[in-house]
Specification:
The chain is mostly beta strands. The chain is built from no helices and eleven strands.
């Protein structure tokens, strides 16, 4: 069974950097053709794909977020991480890590940006 619990700060101040980590168990993040994403859902809105990192370390980002989003990985720890800089209250959302094409999802973590 693949599990992807998210961890990180639940409250971030405006203009600071949001940092979250996803620790994957049951599957290696370097397994061939696996793509690991960060997805968020602001209150009252739909899911928004933020970006992904592939099994071989390549990253792709949502163009609307590219300028302040960074996704990285730690292969020995089987983790991948999200950094979102210069946050505003509009970045308040439930953040999920996922390999959505394989229906692997974390439980989601609420992040609130305070003004």
């Amino acid at each position: 069974q693949v599990q992807l619990p998210e961890s990180g700060s639940g409250v971030v101040k405006s203009s600071q950097t949001l940092s979250l980590t996803c620790t994957v168990s049951g599957c290696s993040i370097t397994a061939s053709n696996h793509y690991w994403s960060w997805i968020r859902q602001p209150p009252g809105r739909g899911l928004e794909w933020m970006g992904s990192i592939s099994y071989d370390g390549n990253t792709n980002y949502n163009p609307s977020l590219r300028s302040h989003t960074f996704i990285s990985r730690d292969t020995p720890l089987n983790q991948f991480s999200l950094q979102l800089s210069s946050v505003t209250p509009e970045d308040t959302a439930v953040y999920y890590c996922a390999a959505y094409d394989r229906d692997y999802w974390g439980q989601g973590t609420q992040v609130t940006v305070s003004s």
